[in-house]
TrEMBL record, chain A:
One of its GO terms (cellular component) is peroxisome. Signal peptide: none annotated. It comes from Eremothecium cymbalariae (strain CBS 270.75 / DBVPG 7215 / KCTC 17166 / NRRL Y-17582). This is UBC core domain-containing protein. GO terms for biological process: protein autoubiquitination; protein import into peroxisome matrix, receptor recycling; protein monoubiquitination. Keywords: ATP-binding, Nucleotide-binding, Ubl conjugation pathway.
From TrEMBL, chain B:
CDD domains: RING-H2_APC11 (cd16456). Keywords: Cell cycle, Cell division, Metal-binding, Mitosis, Ubl conjugation pathway, Zinc, Zinc-finger. The keyword Zinc-finger applies. GO terms for molecular function: cullin family protein binding; ubiquitin protein ligase activity; zinc ion binding. This is Anaphase-promoting complex subunit 11. GO terms for biological process: anaphase-promoting complex-dependent catabolic process; cell division; protein ubiquitination. It comes from Eremothecium cymbalariae (strain CBS 270.75 / DBVPG 7215 / KCTC 17166 / NRRL Y-17582) (Yeast). InterPro entries: RING-box_E3_Ubiquitin_Ligase, RING-H2_APC11, Znf_RING, Znf_RING/FYVE/PHD.
């Protein structure tokens, strides 16, 4: 068990340094930093702008990231706050994210937190309608993009900040 | 007693000499003079994996057939997870030790075992049968022996 925590701690420290250097070049990511719990670097928070030319463009989103003990051999747990984001692959009521990259079967230790956040941001622009969490919304996305955009915008405008 | 260091003279230094043809860049377009790092722990090849204190022969590198190289302890831990499926974390080809490389020799047997297990798990999970079995205890022992 000690080994695992060691792995996580030193890897997160390396990522922390890298993030501090590289965050400026990711303009859409407003923030990616540890969410204070005594400096263990096991909980992080990200804030990013929605991708251009999507109904998410004018909104900012908050993502909490939990680094499991087995990281980087296991994927981080990413979650939006409840009732925060309306998307075919994200559960509105819980904020749960469904993305291949974050599944145990497809995760690889070569990915890092910056890539994870970018991947989730890309997911907003390109929903995976083949394996949706919100089936109705995925269906709407496939058959009527305009209605989909309207509904997403409506939900995002109505969320409590 | 108080000591004051007046002068340090470096008499030797070392580094892992990885021939160019045996490595691929971690990220394309990265500066060439960036130090090579292990893709798993992100520490320098010449440093140690997170669990070792002394760099060098006690925490060596391993050269993969796919030209991706790691600290031996890091890649072993990855391959020992049930989700690795025995694949290289960088390129997702089946991981194997490159033949004819001296630094790989002492590890061949251990890697064969862990890769065999990973492949079995892969087959089992594909056929949908529960992978839990009597092998776990043995694996733990291999682990303890191998990772200090």
């Amino acid at each position: 068990m000690v080994h695992r925590a060691n792995n996580r701690a030193s890897r997160m420290l390396a990522e922390y340094k890298q993030i501090r250097e590289q965050l400026q070049s990711h303009e859409s990511i407003l923030m990616l930093c540890p969410a204070g719990d005594g400096g263990s670097l096991s909980k992080w928070e990200a804030q990013f702008c929605g991708p251009e030319n999507t109904p998410y463009a004018d909104f900012t989103f908050t993502l909490s990231i939990e680094i499991p003990e087995m990281y980087p051999n296991e994927p981080p747990n990413c979650r939006f706050p409840p009732n925060h984001i309306c998307h075919p692959n994200i559960k509105w009521s819980t904020g749960e994210v469904c993305l291949d990259l974050l599944k145990h079967e497809t995760w690889s230790p070569m990915y890092n937190l910056l890539q994870v956040v970018e991947a989730i941001r890309t997911l907003l622009a390109e929903p995976g309608v083949d394996s949706p969490l919100d089936v109705d919304l995925a269906k709407l996305y496939s058959v009527d993009k305009q209605a989909y955009q309207g509904l997403v915008t409506y939900r995002l405008c109505s969320r409590t900040l | 007693m108080q000591l004051q260091i007046k002068n340090v003279q470096c008499v030797a230094s070392w580094y892992w000499d990885v021939p160019k043809e045996l490595k691929r860049d971690l990220h394309e377009g990265e500066d060439e003079d960036d130090e090579d790092v292990c893709g798993i722990c992100r520490a320098s090849y010449n440093g140690t994996c997170p669990n070792c204190k002394l760099p060098g022969e006690t925490c060596p590198l391993i050269v993969g057939s796919c030209h991706h190289n790691f600290h031996v302890h890091c890649i072993y831990q990855w391959l020992n997870t049930s989700t690795s499926k025995g694949l290289c974390p960088m390129c997702r080809q089946a991981f194997s030790l490159r033949d004819g490389i001296r630094i790989n020799e002492p590890h061949k047997e251990k890697f064969e075992k862990v890769l065999m297990k990973a492949r079995q798990q892969n087959v089992v999970s594909v056929s949908g049968v529960n992978a839990a079995g009597g092998v776990d205890q043995e694996d733990v022992m291999i682990d303890q022996e191998f990772i200090r």
